[in-house]
Amino acid sequence: MTTGTKRFLYIVPRFPNTSTTFIANEINVLIQAGIDVQIAAIRGPQRGVVPHHIEEGLLPRMVDIAWGSPISLRWVIGNLLRPNVLLLLLKLIVSHLCSPFTLGKMILSVPKALFLAGWCKANQIDHIHAHFLTIATTTALIASTASDIPYSATAHAFDIFAQDLRRRNCAVPLKCQRATVCVMIDQFNRDFVLRRWPELSEEAHLAVIHNGVDTAFFKPVPRTPPVDKKRAWRLLSVGRFEAKKGFDILIQGVADLRRQGYNVELDIVGYGGLEDSLRRLVTGQGLDEVIRFPGKLRQEDLLHYYQRADIFALASRRDAHGDMDGLPTVLIEALAMELPTVSTRISGIPEIIRDGETGLCVPPGDVPALRDAIEWCILNYAEACRLARQGRELVCQEFDSQINVRRLIDLWYASD
Fold first, then answer.
1. Are residues 308 and 173 in the same domain?
2. pTM beyond cutoff 0.90
3. How confident is the model at residue 1 (pLDDT cuts 50, 70, 90)?
4. How much helix, strand and coil, in percent to the nearest 5, is found in the chain?
5. Largest interatomic CA distance in the chain
6. Number of domains composing the chain
7. 141: domain CATH number?
8. Which domain holds residue 293?
9. Kind of pairing, strands 151-155 and 127-131?
């Protein structure tokens, strides 16, 4: 691995954040590799969020985006008056006219970005990296332009897929063109971006590096199927309660399996706006005793659910606004645990759940197909576990955080 660049600023939407532990894992591996990483969050953590253990150790690295001191105002005003910054802001305003919501967020990010530009120069930052091509990358772009420090970004899912006015991303070509490299978490995302913005094939450096997991933390445990009818088959699913996760499809699949006589239970770990409607669906199916909602969990607590589960299922689909998963980290975690896994053929999911090789992939939104795939795992559990073992081999080769962060560092050095 190349050495040289030592000080990085990571710009993220929130920190800590229950649903983006992959960012904390990535930063932790960078620090282990000898890079000094500081973190700037555009917004504060959501109310009630308890930091994961790995996030707690990173909290002292948070940048205080302060406004009160004279030096802060000097940084903001001085950077705002630079001609190249004014020209960039004009381009961003024009590009963000597609949505009043994202335009408002962009305008609010300007003072923070200009402050961070001054902070980066004062603290001898060598490189800026942003996660998600939305407001975090907009902030990185402005800070980079005002400080002459290179930046890069990682795209994930809603930041390139969503089309509703509140979440529609703007200025994606500009952000990608100005970055030294834009990292895509799967090949599907890269192909999608080039289809939607074909000019980027010539004008941007788009590279594929998968999200990584700690394969020493997520490691296999012995798995044995229920030996009698008293112990139910334990199904597990994890994610934010959003339409694109397809939890309603999974709940209906569990209801079908129980009607067919299978003793199955389901834990859905997560949180979000659809929780009440999902609970009503569970009640309507008469499944309150067998489908549970443990809520938000720290990563170390989630590990217990992976260990006790028999089968993992994620029924991802495209929502009404075009948004869908990229390549959910929970699928990588499940296979790292050698947990038999069922998911859907959408976006980058087949890059990790290779049908008949590392798990089962079914059409999105298809309750009978999802139900039948889970049933197959129950009836052929030894074979399902063999697929899961092959899944862990794939994770160790292509999705290990140590390996992928080294790839990321080499990419930065080659691009700067």
1. no
2. yes
3. very low
4. 50, 15, 35
5. 74
6. 2
7. 3.40.50.2000
8. 233-398
9. parallel
